[in-house]
Specification:
This protein has a single domain, classed as Roll (Structural Genomics Hypothetical 15.5 Kd Protein In mrcA-pckA Intergenic Region, Chain A), CATH 3.10.290.10. The strands form 2 sheets. It has a 5-stranded antiparallel beta sheet with strand order 3-2-5-6-7. Strands 1-4 form a two-stranded antiparallel sheet. Helix 1 crosses helix 2. By secondary structure, the protein is α+β, with helices and mostly antiparallel strands. It has 5 helices and 7 strands, in the order E-H-H-E-E-E-E-E-H-E-H-H.
């Protein structure tokens, strides 16, 4: 294996490891600062090699993984999981956060019903009349 085969661009590796659905989404995440390589902010063309630590923020979750193999082609989910190993601390933190989010009360969502009904319009008129508008 030559030296050029021992490294892969980080955006390509993230796509092959199935962290992102498309390579362009992986590139956007790297450029947006959501990916760190060995503790430093990464650029899309930065190359990864086995043994590197990659930190990826996806929504509220943060994945800290160690690169185990390089992948340049996107394969099955089983093949993708063989490309990295998630740290125990990262897995525990993600599970803790998932439990917190599951237990949190749902945010109040007001669903607009659309146009007011005849009854709603009468109530609005009565309210305005009482206010003196």
């Amino acid at each position: 294996m030559s030296d050029s085969d021992a490294r892969v661009r980080i955006d390509k590796w993230l796509w092959a490891a199935r962290f992102f659905k498309t390579r362009s989404l992986a590139t956007e995440a790297v450029q947006g600062g959501k990916v760190e390589l060995n503790g430093d902010r990464a650029k899309a063309a930065k190359e990864v090699k086995p043994g590197d630590e990659v930190r990826v923020r996806l929504g509220p979750y943060e994945h800290i993984v160690i690169v185990r193999a390089l992948g340049v082609r996107r394969g099955s989910a089983r093949d993708a999981q063989a490309l990295y190993e998630e740290t125990a601390e990262s897995r525990a933190e993600r599970e803790r956060l998932a439990e917190q989010l599951r237990m949190a009360p749902a945010a109040f969502v007001w669903e607009e019903k659309g146009r007011p009904t005849k009854k709603d319009r009468r109530q609005i008129t009565r309210f305005r009349d009482r206010r003196g508008d």
